[in-house]
Amino acid sequence: MTDKYQGFVSTPIGKLLVKNLGLPNPTKLERYSAGDPLVRGTVLVGGRGRVAESLPGLLDVLGIASASQQAEGEKYKGLVFDATGLTASEQLVELQEFFTPVLRSLETCPHVVVIGTPPELVEGRERVAQRALEGFTRSLGKEIGKGGTVQLVYVAPGYEGSILSTLGFLLSPKTAYVSGQVARIGAHNEKKAVEVADWTQPLAGKVAFVTGASRGIGEQIARVLHRDGATVVGLDVPQAADELQKVMKEIDGDWLTLDITAPDAPQRIAHHLKEKHGGVDIVVHNAGVTMDKKLANQKPERFGKVLEINIEAPELITQELLSQGVINANGRIIGVSSMAGIAGNLGQTSYAASKAGVIGFVDSLAGELKDGITINAVAPGFIITQMTAAMPLASREVGQRLNTMAQGGLPVDVAEAIAWFASAGSTAVNGNVVRVCGQMMLGA
Prior knowledge:
The chain has 444 residues and is an alpha/beta fold. It has helices spanning 4-8, 12-21, 55-61, 93-99, 124-143, 164-170, 216-227, 241-250, 265-277, 300-323, 340-343, 349-366, 386-389, 393-401, 411-422, and strands at residues 42-47, 65-67, 76-82, 106-116, 149-155, 181-185, 207-211, 231-236, 254-257, 280-285, 327-336, 374-380, 433-436. A 7-stranded parallel β-sheet has the order 9-8-7-10-11-12-13, with helices on both faces. Strands 2-1-3-4-5-6 form a 6-stranded parallel β-sheet, with helices on both faces. Helix 4 links the parallel strand 3 and strand 4. The protein is globular.
């Protein structure tokens, strides 16, 4: 599926109309391919605080070139500012002093990261200053243009060395469609990040279980996790068996066909993962359905079915895997929520309830999991798939343009965020819900 409007505005007549009518002019986003460096260019670092001195060394581990002083005429692919040293609101001007001189020196599709301290861990004026960072980064995300992204990472004291996987994700093209987001490191997990031997294969030796893996977002999740070194076990309904097997054979994976709402599904999944793979390291609850109707016209069985597939089944499967000890130490549980679960959507009361439930699922387990197991979720916005391609033209175009990027995302964008959560280096990333929505104008 392609964005025909984006193709049109790159033509001579399209460029003319954009200039004269003020139409959206989306930048072609850069995305990561296997074998690429994480950053093609230099990252400028600045600020003062707990992370500032170690930033160049951390970036060097990831193979990212950095500079600590802006050089005249130099172009930058990324910016990192340590704001953990800001302890009063009047010090927030340091953000302007760092960013304003360099913003016009950014290359196309730059990536910006601000690092702060979780406001709930500090008090008084420092808490005020740290909370202010959210407004700054979200606004800068809507200003930066050129296909750029801006994120805020709150790092708890003592977890400064656990940010490698997050820096690698947020500064790279893997975060092409993620902007204006807040990630927390060290908020719910006492275990620090596990050292990753090879950052090009952070999932080497891991077993990943992905539901709804035969096509669309689920297929891309399976392919990206395989790219990063995981052995993938894909699941889908029996009707999708041929598609599922085709995908799994292409990535040397395993497969399981069943209805996740069947009464014995959690036990069958647990048995398969334990007997064939000795357990599982990554569980991705991707399977989901929509049965859209305004609530006044909704039938109980359809409303209930959406809840059953989208949230009840993930809860029961996770409970079974945990109770049987099938999820290995330092394991990952990852849910797929939706912007509908955050902002709501016309005719999607059942779907939005189920996807908000996924966020509640993350909240309920994040502080309870042991042995370095984490739970996080992604919340996709408008992602271009076969389903969205079937939408009426006007609805589809509006849905794609109402974000900072002025375009829809791709299934791989969701998969990349999931791969970040899945990384062995993301042990301290727990209890997060990150929106893959191009920073939607509403609800983001």
